[in-house]
Write a structure and sequence with these properties.
Length: 334
């Protein structure tokens, strides 16, 4: 264990990969430019030098082939960790994920799990152009057989990636690009708990903000701003999108009676639609107002000059909170 030091999310992910490869020689890392270059975001920097090009190597620009190769390797006992260079680059591999990766355990009646980790940088906030800023999480969430994980803190980036690599089943590991350079004081290695658990990042009594990944800093900033106006907002970080931690989320909503779901992905049929439905079904008699959503708009991701208008921000979250049908005596309706 190293002393606590300031670590970026990219460095935490790099350390998680390095430690997993040291502990298990069956762990392989491959994808586009992950070897010599160390990845577009340098998450795999130095791995090829330490472990050689048989365990960390570059592939052709063929995402479907990358996942297909990972399926074969996993069938023969390896634990492949593959990188899709950008969120929208992963779409050519989607057929492999849906038709094979997600179904193998069921297809073989549990005799052949596939321990594959698919790392996907996702989301906006970096001034990326088309195909470089998609929030594609709903596609994976809607695919039974896949575990879908997204960290929002440096400690979770390390811990959840280690858990994903150790999982006997396939994990889609979504990495928020805008948080790669976010820093925290962290002691590595760190274990923040198993996959499938949400975390309450800030306690509150008046309303619950449910969010994940790149939108957690927005939710935390909104909760801080609301506190100055006398409104106490609880913030829940999902950490794992599928399976959904209904228990933690619903317990928080029942405490506060109000909920706002925040994410960068589009609103119609997006992740927040399912989350809001679950909350409404399970917490109906505790809700003081309809569940609100603050999301990206229902358009393709815009050009960089417009992304600040597209992405949820603190003011949009506070506007949604103000529309939660507060009783006049609370003073929150203003």
């Amino acid at each position: 264990m190293t002393p606590a030091t300031e670590v970026t999310m990219a460095k935490a992910l790099n350390s998680a990969l390095r430690h997993a490869m040291r502990e298990d020689e069956r762990t392989l890392v491959f994808g586009e430019d992950v070897g010599t270059l160390g990845g577009v975001f340098r998450v795999t920097d130095g791995l090829a030098r330490e472990f050689g090009d048989e365990r960390c190597f570059d592939t052709p620009l063929a995402e479907s082939a990358i996942i297909g190769a990972a399926v074969g390797m996993a069938m023969y006992g390896y634990r492949p960790v593959v990188e899709m260079q950008f969120d929208a680059f992963a779409y050519p591999a989607f057929e492999q994920l849906v038709s094979h990766v997600a179904k193998f355990r069921s297809r073989t009646r549990g005799s052949l799990p596939l321990p594959i980790t698919v790392r996907i940088p996702y989301g906006g906030g970096i001034g990326g152009v088309e195909h470089h800023s998609d929030s594609s999480e709903i596609y994976y969430m809607a695919t039974p057989g896949l575990t879908v994980v997204t960290p929002a803190t440096v400690a979770d980036a390390y811990s959840l990636l280690r858990r994903a690599i150790a999982s006997p089943d396939p994990v889609v590991f979504l990495e928020p690009k805008r948080l790669y350079w976010h820093k925290e004081e962290v002691t590595l290695p760190v274990d923040t708990g198993p996959l499938g658990w949400a975390a309450v990042r800030r306690p509150g009594t008046d309303a619950t903000l449910v969010t994940y990944g790149p939108s957690l800093p927005v939710a935390m900033a909104a909760a801080e701003a609301a506190a100055e106006a006398g409104i106490s907002l609880e913030v829940v970080d999902l950490r794992t999108l599928s399976p959904f931690d209904e228990e933690t989320v619903c317990a928080a909503v029942r405490r506060t009676g109000r909920a706002v779901v925040i994410h960068e992905a589009h609103g119609f049929a997006g992740p927040g639609a399912e989350i809001a439905a679950r909350i409404t079904e399970r917490c109906f008699y505790h809700l003081e107002a309809p569940v609100r959503r603050v999301t990206g708009f229902d358009v393709p991701y815009p050009a960089p000059l417009l992304e600040a208008h597209y992405l949820p921000d603190v003011q949009r979250v506070l506007d949604a909170v103000a529309r939660l049908e507060w009783p006049a005596r609370s003073g929150a309706a203003a």
